[in-house]
Design goal:
By secondary structure, the chain is mainly beta. The protein has one domain: Thrombin, subunit H, CATH 2.40.10. Helix content is about 10%, strand content about 45%. The chain contains one helix and nine strands. The strands form three sheets. It has a four-stranded antiparallel β-sheet, with no helix packed on it. A three-stranded antiparallel β-sheet has the order 7-8-9, with no helix packed on it. A hairpin with a 4-residue loop joins strand 7 and strand 8. The radius of gyration is 15 Å and the shape is globular.
Length: about 110
């Protein structure tokens, strides 16, 4: 983690969904919301994005992004990876920017995160 002054802070914790530890968490994005701080992350190699509550270390919501992967497959020829591999948050526009491994395109999405 990085604080407001860009000092690197190290925090380790186990993320759980329904009591089960989550594995292969990939590409994380920190988002401050009105009710707390969250990490949004995809699970490699599936098309799911997690909303992780940093106060509880629990998954609060999942987002199935299979339709995005299908759309990318239909739009891009010659790409070899059909997995999500990038997530960023634009707080000014309240959009998430998502892409995949070696994809030649990216998507702007709202994700119903609030």
């Amino acid at each position: 983690m990085v604080d407001a002054d860009f000092n690197i802070l190290e925090t380790k914790f186990i993320v759980k969904q329904d009591g089960t530890p989550m594995m292969r968490i990939n590409e994380m994005e920190w988002v401050h919301e009105q009710d707390g701080d969250y990490i949004y992350s995809n699970i490699w190699p599936i098309n799911t994005v997690l909303k992780i509550n940093l106060s509880t270390n629990k998954v609060e919501k999942t987002f199935d992004e299979s339709d995005m992967v299908k759309d990318a497959r239909n739009r891009a020829e010659g790409w070899r990876e059909e997995v999500l591999n990038g997530i960023a948050y634009d707080r000014l526009k309240d959009n998430f920017i998502m892409t995949g491994k070696d994809w030649p395109l990216f998507y702007l999405t709202k994700l119903d995160h609030k």
